[in-house]
Amino acid sequence: MEWKNTYRGLIMGAVEVIPGISGGTIALLLGIYERLIAAINGFFSKDWKKQLGFLIPLGIGMVVSIFLLARLIEWLFNHYPAPTQFFFMGLILGVLPFLLHKVDAKNTFKMKHIIFMVVGIIVVTILGFISTGEGEIISNITTSTYILLFFSGMIASSALIIPGISGSFMLLILGVFPTVIAAISNFQLNIIAVTGLGIALGFIVMSRIVGYFLKNHYTLTFAATIGLVVGSVFVVFPGWPASAALVIISIFTFLTGLFTAYLLGRLEYR
Question: Where is the signal peptide, in residue numbers (predicted)?
């Protein structure tokens, strides 16, 4: 068992409750993105047992985080939204130097890679402007509600695997984010189970797609990924706070996020 993955799962799970922050981005920062894709794909092959040592600790960390740390993150967003979002902006931007170095962008990027990167930025920025609002908690659960939750879970988990696109933000766009968060907080197993099945299927499908592109179009895939990560900054940016004190605090938390990304990157990429 790779128990080091437990703390990685804690971080990934915590950010997944935040609309705009992608667990895929954090996986890149932690240096496990390609391994994660390979492990998910390998789990559905004859060598599935070999993947358990990687996936189980990561899954434990994510589940514990979603049920425990998620409440702390929600509290910070409710009471200190701007400083919290600036921290995550720093964390997101802090991953870029490691990505550029990993793919050796200075020597490998050509015009087509730059185009894909710009397209990635545009796609996420457009998604940032698409929202139906938070919506309301669905109290009258019907068969159509379960179908909606299942496919919402599929879409959200597909987005979770793609760096720069937040799974929780996709739930927000689909209007089920409050319902899912409330179900997690109140342990409504029916909603959790149906959404979870959709998430599992989305993981399987999207991991195979991403795995194919990483294997056959590695540099191009990373170019698009870098664009998605850059674009997510525009989604997370909350605007400048009204008071000077909050501006100073937000700048401090932004720098803290950058430094945290640097430390994690040094730890994982050394």
Answer: none
